[in-house]
Amino acid sequence: RRERQLVAEEWAQAASPIAVTQAKSSELCSASERERNRSWEAVMEARLQAQARAAEVRLEKLEAEETARLIQAQAASAREAERMAEAERGLVLHWEELAQQREELAKQREEEVIAAQGALAERAEARELEDRRRFEYEAEAIRLEA
Q1: Residues 6 or more apart from 3 whose CB is under 8 A from it?
Q2: Domain limits of the chain?
Q3: Contact predicate 18/44, CB 8 Å
């Protein structure tokens, strides 16, 4: 932006000699002086046109550089967005894996609880059977004593 401003100021300064030349030209009366002034004006006009074209070229170059920077920034932004999307997909997969592991652990715990309950039930049955046998044995022993 600063360079653009400098180019615009340079352009404005280049235009001011034309106004000075035109003022001089009207003041001078002699044909030879007018001819010299026209010649000088033509040279100055050519110089101004060259300066103006150079300023335009610099301005075009600045615009092209700015456009290139914008394109690079957009490309970098797109790459960053893609990287973030990839990271997000990775997180989603990770969370899905964790949820699946959680479900598997819950099933495993449920199976362990069921197995433990079954083992407790078997032990209780075994104790009950043992208690019943002991009771029957003791009852038989009491009957035999009597």
Answers
A1: 58, 62
A2: 2-145
A3: yes
In this prediction the pTM is 0.44
DSSP H or E run through 29: none
Residues 33, 60 contacting (CB under 8 angstroms)? no
User: 54-91: b or e for each residue (b if 16 or more CB lie within 10 Å)?
Assistant: ebeeeeeeeeeeeeeeeeeeeeeeeeeeeeeeeeeeee
- The token duo for 95 is 């969370």
CA distances from 9 to 28, 32, 53 (A): 30, 34, 14
The tens-digit pLDDT sequence of the chain (146 residues) is 677 777 766 666 665 555 555 555 555 455 566 677 778 888 988 998 998 899 899 999 999 999 999 999 999 999 999 999 999 999 999 999 999 999 999 999 999 999 999 999 999 999 999 999 999 999 888 888 87
Helix (H, G, I), strand (E, B) or coil at 28: coil
Q: Name the token pair of 144.
A: 């035999």
